[in-house]
Amino acid sequence: MTCRYCGGSFEKEVVPYGTKYDLRKLKVLIESDPNSTVVFYGGEPLVNREFISNFTREIRAKRYGVQTNGTLVRLLKQEVWKRMDFALLSIDGREETTDKMRGRGIYSTVVRNAKYLKELGLELIARMTVTEHSDIYEDVTHLLSLGLFDKIHWQLNVVWTEKWNVKEWSTRNYIPGIERLMELFMKNLMEGRVLKIIPILGVLSSHYFEGYRGSPCGAGYGSVSITPDGRVLSCPIAVREKWAELGTVEEFKLYEEPLPEECRNCKFNRYCGGRCYYSSQEKYWGEEGFQDVDEITKKYLCIVLKYIPVIDEALRKGIIKREMLYYDPKEDSTEVVP
Ligand code: SF4
Ligand code: SF4
Fold first, then answer.
1. Is the minimum distance from the CB of 203 to ligand 2 under 6 angstroms?
2. What is the pTM of this model?
3. What is the pLDDT of residues 279-337, one digit of tens each?
4. How many other β-carbons are positioned within 10 Å of the β-carbon of residue 309?
5. Is 214 helix (H, G, I), strand (E, B) or coil?
6. Which residues have a Cβ under 8 Å from the Cβ of 194 and sit 6 or more positions away?
7. How many CA atoms are closer than 13 Å to the CA of 168, on its beta-carbon side?
8. Closest CA to 321 of 209, 184, 180
């Protein structure tokens, strides 16, 4: 793969290629949790098909999923796929957007494999990376129009990448695109349908149900990552960062206060949870770059939240039921706030 925004796999000195811990420890943990969700991620998790096959055979979890680039789905046997509940497939939107960033032919491969997984009965989530080459409205609505993906999620390419002019792009494309997506969401809602656009649905869920105590992904308080050497991390990307180490599969401790300090007095914190915990800890774009993205986050949240009175009215009239607005990102390993 030649994805422009990916740093590739971590070195094996940092994240070993083989499993170094006792799987039985995880089995006890997972099977004693009635709400356990296990998601395989990478690198590309499907290249380690034996691990996935054995794990899903030996350990009972309530929900199994995989985050994959969507090119190697045939590596896993059908019987293993059938143990999976959902798959997040990396696709950035329209063919030209996806192939520009991920390489020629990737879009058609992922769409073909999505059809195959859909036929096997999996729930599919499109996992978009959104860059200055994306048109948020066109790319999201294109994926909706395929009728393949049950949910659509995106992340802005602003955490690990070189700094780019996200402010200019957001004024020109992103914020107007979010306005239009929200109008589309509301048009459907008024007809009794809730579009599963996660950055919208996840925010509404935090209004009508419990707010986010920390990053919506649950980093360190509602979800953890297990590295092949048996470390328990709050975030799967933070393989070198000490703040992310919660312990090992033998013993670990969750964060008591997962909300970043600078977010504690923010009026949006129940909807945002401080967005990505990693980005608030590392701030690769510096304080100023972090604030640029924060401004965009607040604008997007305002666009979604301004419809609350209209949604209240729709609930009162019985056009939709409150439960239709519930979304728990930890069950899908999504982040809600892009
Ligand atoms: S909008 Fe910004 S300051 Fe407020 S909770 Fe989110 S990340 Fe923190
Ligand atoms: S959203 Fe941020 S903190 Fe959460 S898992 Fe992703 S990188 Fe880690």
1. no
2. 0.96
3. 999 998 999 999 999 999 999 999 999 999 999 999 999 999 999 999 999 999 999 99
4. 9
5. coil
6. 188, 201, 320, 324, 325
7. 5
8. 209
In ligand 2, the atom with minimum distance to the C-alpha of 235 is 8
Domains in the chain: boundaries: 33-157, 167-214+270-338
List the structure tokens of 327.
């979304």
Atom 6 of ligand 1 has which residue's CA nearest to it?
Answer: 274
Assigned CATH for 33-157 = 3.20.20.70
Phi, psi of 241 (to 5 degrees): -90, 125
Residue 23 Cα to ligand 1 middle (Å): 37
Structure tokens at 273: 């949870």
Average pLDDT across the chain, whole number? 96
Cα 216 to middle of ligand 2, angstroms: 9
Cβ–ligand 2 distance for 224 under 6 Å, the answer no
| 244 within ligand 2 shell (Cβ under 6 A) | no
Q: In this structure, which amino acid lies at residue 97?
A: T
**Greatest C-alpha distance within the chain:** 59
- Residue with CA closest to ligand 2 atom 3: 277
